[in-house]
Design a protein that fits this description.
The complex is a heterodimer of chains A (about 110) and B (about 110).
Chain A (H helix, E strand, L loop, with lengths): L9 E5 L4 E6 L7 E7 L6 E7 L4 E3 L3 E6 L4 E6 L8 E8 L7 E3 L3 E6 L1
Parallel strand pairs in A: 1-10
Antiparallel strand pairs in A: 2-7, 3-4, 3-8, 5-6, 6-7, 8-9, 8-10
Chain B lengths: L3 E4 L2 E4 L5 E7 L5 E7 L5 E7 L6 E2 L6 E3 L9 E3 L8 E8 L6 E3 L3 E5 L1
Parallel strand pairs in B: 2-11
Antiparallel strand pairs in B: 1-3, 3-8, 4-5, 4-9, 5-6, 7-8, 9-10, 9-11
Classes of the chains: A mainly beta (about 110), B mainly beta (about 110).
Chain lengths: ~110, ~110
């Protein structure tokens, strides 16, 4: 079950700095992972994805790293901007027939001006 | 604009009442999902449907039912609401295996 409850881990960064958000996943058989951004009052928004046959994928200002040995994902945001302030979730796709998303615990990113 | 429409946006509901949350997508996606998100937590799957005419149970299905009469609509029904069903409900759809999801804007439900 979830362990974060009401107290999301928070990462506070200075505008312009790089941000690194970490996530552990549970199923070593999972082969597809997604990072989502969720702003207050909105649904999750797709940021970037990665398949298990890759260890790194880059997008615009974002990079996802996958370490299958330790079942760890990270999201790197370059030159963090105030608009990046949100809660970030990693998710893995379930390998059963539902192909449901299994969400990790979120991290709140606060960008200081 | 293609996407997912959820209604209502928010609702306050008396315990014991029946309520249906609506979800409609216009992307012709095969799979649809209902998730709930409790304060500060990630989303948890309630029910899903891989194609019209089929449904399945997720992690937290008790107290909820769904139907999938056609591709576009996937309503979620609370037969007799209880306070523990106070949450934000998100509908999502997916085009195919492994594809990214599209989420609706959510329905904030408070059961009192």
């Amino acid at each position: 079950g979830e362990s974060v409850g009401l107290h999301l881990p928070t990462l506070s960064v200075q505008e312009g700095d790089n941000s690194i958000i970490n996530c552990a996943y549970s199923n070593s058989a999972s082969d597809y992972f997604i990072w989502y951004k969720q702003e207050s009052g909105k649904g999750p928004q797709f940021i970037i994805d990665i398949r298990s046959n890759m260890d790194k994928r880059q997008g615009q200002r974002v990079t996802v790293l996958l370490n299958k040995t330790v079942k760890h994902l990270s999201l790197q945001i370059a030159a963090t901007q105030p608009g990046d302030s949100a809660v970030y979730f990693c998710a893995e796709i379930s390998m059963d027939s539902s192909y449901k998303l299994i969400f990790g615990s979120g991290t709140r990113l606060l960008v200081r001006p | 604009i293609a996407g997912i429409t959820q209604a209502p946006t928010s609702q306050i509901l008396a315990a014991g009442r029946r309520m249906t949350l609506r979800c409609t997508q216009d992307m012709r996606h095969n799979a649809m999902y209902w998730y709930r998100q409790d304060l500060g937590l990630g989303l948890r799957l309630i029910h899903y449907s891989n194609t019209a005419g089929t449904t399945g149970k997720g992690e937290v299905p008790d107290g909820y039912s769904v139907s999938r009469a056609n591709t576009d609509d996937f309503p979620l029904t609370l037969a007799s609401a209880v306070p523990s069903q106070t949450s934000v409900y998100f509908c999502a759809s997916r085009a195919g295996t492994g594809d990214g999801y599209t989420f609706g804007s959510g329905t904030r439900l408070t059961v009192v």
